[in-house]
Amino acid sequence: MSKIAVMGYGTVGSGVVEVLLTNQASIAKRAGEAVDIKYVLDLRDFPGSVIEDRLIKDFDIIKNDPEIDIVVETMGGINPAYQFVKACLCEGKSVCTSNKELVAKYGPELLAIARKNNINFLFEASVGGGIPIIRPLNQSLTADEIEEITGILNGTTNYILTKMRDEGSDFSDVLHKAQELGYAERNPEADIEGYDACRKIAILTSLAYGQQVDFEDIYTEGITKITAEDFKYAAKINATVKLFGTSKMVNGKVLAMVAPVMIKSTHPLYSVDDVFNGIYVRGNMLGEVMFYGKGAGKLPTASAVVADVVDAVKHKGKSIMTIWSEEKQEILPFDEAEHRFFVRIKDSEGIIEKAEAVFGKLEMIDAGIEGEHAFITEIMTEKEYREAAGRIQGIISMIRTDF
Amino acid sequence: MSKIAVMGYGTVGSGVVEVLLTNQASIAKRAGEAVDIKYVLDLRDFPGSVIEDRLIKDFDIIKNDPEIDIVVETMGGINPAYQFVKACLCEGKSVCTSNKELVAKYGPELLAIARKNNINFLFEASVGGGIPIIRPLNQSLTADEIEEITGILNGTTNYILTKMRDEGSDFSDVLHKAQELGYAERNPEADIEGYDACRKIAILTSLAYGQQVDFEDIYTEGITKITAEDFKYAAKINATVKLFGTSKMVNGKVLAMVAPVMIKSTHPLYSVDDVFNGIYVRGNMLGEVMFYGKGAGKLPTASAVVADVVDAVKHKGKSIMTIWSEEKQEILPFDEAEHRFFVRIKDSEGIIEKAEAVFGKLEMIDAGIEGEHAFITEIMTEKEYREAAGRIQGIISMIRTDF
Hints:
Two copies of one chain form a homodimer. The first copy, chain A, is an alpha/beta fold. Helix content of chain A is 36%, strand content 27%. In chain A, α4 links the parallel β4 and β5. The longest helix of chain A is centred in the N-terminal third of the chain and has 17 residues. The interface between A and B is large, with 56 and 56 residues.
């Protein structure tokens, strides 16, 4: 029997306990032995709950108990999660976490400790909730050189964009409704500004290329400037707007960004709607694969954490995550990134000719919206776009495209 | 360095060689050591090819060479693949195969030998080509009790059905064109009669529930009776027709079948078109996930085989596939399976009333096709449907629905 400790009895932590208790028998079968929750660490009390008699408030009890060889971290945030996780790994205890901030910031350091001690630091739940993506990247797509990973990695923003498209509503109205329904947090900044997606694409990119990509180095733009009008134009060309976290290999460097992107209906992620997440991976041999599912939620996320626990039990004494060194991955300067740009501009005398003079050939889109024009440029770099846009008056907004 | 042998230099086997040579450096990094192809076994000659000097015709050379500890089997079929694979495993050599017939028929026996010898029998490429599904089922979805696996598992039939829908063409015309384009084989029976999908869903079902499901026990119906008219009716209710391989847990028994199924546009597999495969899995904790990609083709399939080779190198001395016993999984008698049925019936005096008398309440669909009617029944068992259909004249065709 394996005895484990769960640190943090919030949404995901209590989900982990629920999954372990509900599927006890099938989990024991797959792990090869029973998995027993010996401690739950939380500063709060949970009188009457199923874990009442296992609740502890002192981390040292876990650290110093030689019976515990696997620890689940579902506290979130950096402090004290980082200190606790590191202490566990240094004591030779495997750790399974759902904490994307922790993994994005300290992943390679914690993996290196795990490797040295022949234990495991696993974090399937840190990206895509219940969708298996970390393990496939680490163990299934190993024959390929990864050319691109693009994901709809944040359910809240995908829900908001889907509603904006379907109902023709504006961003702030939908956000407000999403907050009422509990789909968006009271303080939604981490989601709507793209910070959450940024941590996740940093993790995926680091794993895909085997070297550290710092999330601070990834160009990140949220969805707050997207409007109902943008969706009207998109609909005219059989397209929509999604918040993508994306990384692509371009001339041996990695282009990484989080930004709203206009995509056509032929894109594999086009029909990933509402709170669902989708992750598209292109390999040089494999071609395209996509993974789809609920990217958040108590039980889906807990299911991924527990799958890591099962792996940790099965692989005692052997480190199975291998490819993520602390060495830095070279990042393409964002100025050199190339796209076609969707641009809206205020109507004025000779504005189309002026736009053509600075942007070159334009693909015009008419959505019947008065007082403005919209077009898609040819392929140009971010720098070229910025310089061109600086030479003309009246630009309302811009969205990068993926076609 | 790991030295391997490849048995069978056909489409997939030559793809395996190409993947190993093209991505040599990244594969070595992920495997932890270089992977060298020492032998290629094939009865044919390949003068001038890259493997000319490694080509052998005698299997015993592989079997008796202690330097070879991993063997790739890409010959296909049962004989002599079964004898060769078994001999390799008995000699303590891990085997990676793309051979779905072999895995469906002898999977648990070969896995048991691998387990006993602390080596690996791996078969990611046997289902879904390059889509990771075997490893996710074995290693990622381990916290869940699987409630359903449904897949579009055969690219040829999905291509045919997609063209029939998009072009309004009949089955035989599209099949003929697909054969000309090389998307369908000259002898297309294994695809269009559902036999290929049947082997694949047998493998997935056995893995999901940990016990053997014989493919002979799975109700299997192909797409040869699907017509252009069926798609006209489907379009009227925002639906389409797909060939599903499906297994569901129903009251502790497994309902397994391969059949054309009418699905609505809200189904996660609705937009899996052309030669693409999609596999939908529902777990009791996880909810719904879906895996999508090219289910066949030289390099995608080879990529999956080589990922298995990487895993075999990384796990020398440890058997990693665990849950598939030779014990038989109890199967729900197909007569007890429940669906709503889409039925077309010839027009005649009072036919609607007669149909209601035998089938109960009907949801009529009008696609403007003369001389017939179409409807969807309430939920009923296969047996109830068959008995009701026996009591009425003029039924043109029937398709099961998934709504």
